Amino acid sequence: MQWNDLIAWIDEEKLGAVRANEPMADHTSWRIGGPAKVMVWPEDTAACSQLLGHCKTMGIPVAVLGYGTNLLVADEGIDALVINTREMNWILWQDHQVRVGAGASLAVLAGQAARRGLQGLAFSIGIPGSVGGAVLMNAGAYNGMISDVVSQVVVLDLNGGQHVLSKEDIHYGYRVSDLKKNHWFVAEALLTLQPGDRKALEKEMNDCLKARKEKQPLELPNGGSVFKNPAGEGAGRSIDRAGLKGLRIGDAQVSLKHANFIVNLGHATAKDTYTLIRTVQQRIHQQYGIFLEPEVVFWGLKE
Ligand SMILES: Cc1cc2nc3c(=O)[nH]c(=O)nc-3n(C[C@H](O)[C@H](O)[C@H](O)COP(=O)(O)OP(=O)(O)OC[C@H]3O[C@@H](n4cnc5c(N)ncnc54)[C@H](O)[C@@H]3O)c2cc1C
Fold this sequence. Notes:
The chain is α+β, with helices and mostly antiparallel strands. The protein folds into 3 domains: about 5-85, Uridine Diphospho-n-acetylenolpyruvylglucosamine Reductase, domain 2, CATH 3.30.43.10; about 90-215, Uridine Diphospho-n-acetylenolpyruvylglucosamine Reductase, domain 3 (2-Layer Sandwich), CATH 3.30.465; about 215-300, Uridine Diphospho-n-acetylenolpyruvylglucosamine Reductase, domain 1 (Alpha-Beta Complex). The protein is built from 9 helices and 18 strands. A hairpin with a 2-residue loop joins strand 9 and strand 10. It is globular. The protein starts with a helix and ends with a strand.
């Protein structure tokens, strides 16, 4: 495969900044991951559509990257064109609705909503991902989920074709959506919020940030919650009860602060982290008969 040809084509078509052998560790909150063959930063939906269409025709694998806050990438990296959505970060308000690009920050959006006295996003203030990642993963916290406020999503299929989906088309559930199942590229979303009290929203968000700081190991690189919560007891509680807090492989460690987080103590590799995830999974299965399903997404590692 001619990666240099791809870079030349992207430059020629002016589809965004582009780099070869871009270290994924620089783009993931875990600070882990080998190089992406090519990374591109498109600025709009039309450029993404062109990129997807070209790659489909040429048989080039594509991966979509938001802010890398729920992602474990192999040490060997990824042989694909990685489309980084960070430059698609526009936010357009119209009354109580907002149309937003996939690369906008969820936390920035939540802050803007509160300042406008609009409620529905306060839950998301400490979630460090992009809007696109959140809409795909149905990010949620403190009894709120992004699907509560999604009205419409503009997606691209693997050929680059554009579709407008309503919330009903997406079949949202706990950290699942048809967007994920069908490998749609989330390009834009329309969110509908409700009038609220600015002061109360700001307080709610401050409380939320304080609680996160107390409970989560934010001082060390991590990938957020590693496992989805099974029905009944939370994943973190089971891992804690099994005595696995502090379990370490290389520089990857089950956080002492929150057992559903794995932290990078300095030089953790994807292999260390992945082996630790599988070890925790096996131990919990052996001890409690519970299968913990990963919430984090793996690139280049066996699911
Ligand atoms: C400290 C910390 C706290 C967290 N707290 C929470 C929490 O409370 N609740 C919660 O739900 N999550 C939480 N997370 C996880 C994470 O922030 C969310 O899942 C977030 O929605 C992921 O967004 P992202 O942009 O980082 O996605 P990425 O990690 O970049 O990608 C995750 C997946 O989404 C895909 N993807 C990303 N953008 C797009 C797009 N535009 N179109 C199609 N696919 C796309 C990627 O291909 C990948 O499969 C936390 C993470 C951290 C590090």
